Amino acid sequence: MNDVLTARKTNEDIWSENPLGLDGSRVIDRRIYVDADIFAAEREKIFARTWQWIAHESEIPDFGDYITATVGGRPIVVSRGDEGRITAFLNTCTHRGAILAAHPRGNSRGSFTCFYHGWCFDTEGKFTTAPLAEAYGENLGKGCYDAPTIRHDVFAGNVFVSLDTNVAPLEDFLGAAGPLIRAYTGRHEALGRVRWLLKGNWKLWHENFRDNYHPMFTHRTIGANYQGVHIEGANIDLTGGHSLLAFPSQGNPEPIRSLMRNITGKQPDPGISSLRPRGQGNPDLRHNIMAVFPNLDFQFPNTGEGGGYLQHVTPTSADTAVVELVVFGEVGEPPEARQARLDRFLDAQASSGKISGDDTEAARRCSVGFGTVNEVRWSNMDRGQTPGREGIKNDEYSLRAFYDAYKRHMGDSLPAA
Fold this sequence. Notes:
alpha+beta, 8-stranded antiparallel β-sheet
């Protein structure tokens, strides 16, 4: 009997004994948003063992260009070196530990020089020289002082890294998400990025991209757009923790015009009239919102034509994270088209944008509400009762896809119900 009592539940049923009376795959234990030990385990079991998006290679086009990031709490550098080679290495001086690259993005001019004692490293993180090196005698073997490299791969222009030398090949990890990423960014380049601090757990932001139940309530303009419209689209579990929301361009322009007149006192842009209500059954699924496990999100048209954006979230603590927005455009498009694209996405999707500003506030309010986790421990994730991996647009197959992979990675680091 003791063996039965102490046996660990399988990952699939770890949350099954919940007071909502739902299957364990259809609830969320809110402790995962607030518990510091769970956050520490996420860094090691998820972020240190999966492929992590860092940049699009168009952001580092020239020799010496680099981008810095943090993966599983480790600072890293992705750098462009000789013959166009891209290298990823840990952003730490092997002398005393100071970071070698202090800026989010820059150009090393071929050498990373440590601010603290002047030790130098090339574009691939290899130690080259130290000031007053003779004082070390014969003990300064250069090879053992190289900054450790980490595994990296480039897929459709996107640079991914992994701290796990045994991680599955990137294309296998991406699975069904891979062909869509090719369509989105394969013919595009990054136009710019912005970042901001989220006052909330990283999963709240990533969940938001898998949730199409909230827009008509949280976003005032989207809610107006859908007045009187039969909402269409699909919510799809792509397996592997990845998911897709696919839906046609549809909407009712009249409520938006009225809303804008009330807010601004001016007549809205006539372009809004291009929106027309769509009837049921329209097969033209134009918009894709794809979530890639664990923390990468794309929003592009089906074909990728006309550009789009991605958002990437990096946890910094159990209740804070950094969100980055990267805007993409087609290679060779006119400068005025690029500027208009940047302006549009900043207006809608940056931290104070008409859409992301609402999402940021929703995460903050959830974080405050999680102060009740001892009294209200469980969240419902039960929308969509059709068997299988696909439901309608505002179902929660995408959320369940994430938590299926999440529990598999976390294993016995999650407390039982």
